[in-house]
Amino acid sequence: MRVVATSRHRLGLAAEQVLPLDPLPVPGLGAAERAVLTPAVWLFTDRIRRVRPSFGTNWVGRLPTTGIRPASSSALAAASMRLLAIT
After folding, report:
1. 13 versus 53: which is more confidently predicted?
2. Distance of alpha carbon 9 from alpha carbon 54, whole angstroms
3. End-to-end CA distance of the chain
4. Among candidates 26, 17, 39, 32, which has minimal Cα distance to 63?
5. I need a labelling partner for 59 at 20 to 30 A (CA). Which of 13, 28, 36, 68 fits?
6. Is 61 left (phi over 0), alpha (psi -120 to 50) or beta?
7. 26 or 18: which carries more pLDDT confidence?
8. pLDDT tens-digit profile of 24-76?
């Protein structure tokens, strides 16, 4: 049997292999339009679309790269920064 497990800490198993991953870059404060281009926000919006496929599908008044309203992009950037703080 093979098991792939993820954890923030080593599990201490005999056959454990550790692959450290750096956190994704998150947007800084301000520049909401650029925030949606960061990997953290892309991943976050991808996960939102898996739960709510219609998220960002109305392109009117939205950023062409992600379909997210500029006002929402600053909220997404702030959420990404808060999530980074809990790691």
Report:
1. 13
2. 36
3. 31
4. 32
5. 28
6. left
7. 18
8. 776 665 555 566 677 777 787 788 878 887 776 555 445 445 566 666 666 77
Q: Which two tokens stand for residue 81?
A: 């920064």
| Angle 71-83-62 from CA coordinates, rounded to 5° | 20
- Residues 70 and 83: their CA atoms lie apart, in Å, by 20
- Please give the structure tokens belonging to residue 32: 């909401």
Give me the residue label for tokens 């929402």.
Answer: 72
Two structure tokens written together for 2: 């093979």
- Looking up tokens 């923030």 gives 8
